[in-house]
Amino acid sequence: MPYDFTLTAIIHATPQAVYDTWLSSRGHSAMTGGKARQSASPGASVMAWDSYIHGKNLELKPGKRIVQSWRTSKFADDAPDSKITVTLTPVKSGTKLTLKHSSVPDGHTSYEQGGWQKSYFEPMQHYFAHKKRIKPHAVKKHVAKKSVKKKAAKKTSARRAAKKAKKK
Question: CB 46: neighbour CB atoms within 10 A?
Fold first, then answer.
């Protein structure tokens, strides 16, 4: 008979940073150490831990909640997918991540008894503790500078093309 369990962890990052990293293939891979294919699109297929886990985005609320169907390569063929609900709550030290894993097939207790902690929570804590911290206002300035530089480069390129056309 399938069962449900809930686990929590404190991650030293903003809820939005955790959300964005979880749903980025590159970020998820870097955060967990296993190859991942993730997406921030509802209904998109997802994969984690070098194809050990497959699923689909069921519900996404930016910076707040991720709901995905999950099945591992160890699930019996006739077992239904399990479901994870990741709730991200801001706390003084970062984010309280609450993970509810539901409809877990019989015999798969290792996920509750250390699997999530070892494969997700501990690597996430390490990843965010060592990730270069950029203040939100600095990110906005950085993005704005890049945008201005791109626009200037496009104008310069257009001017060069016009000059070449006049010479011919």
Answer: 22
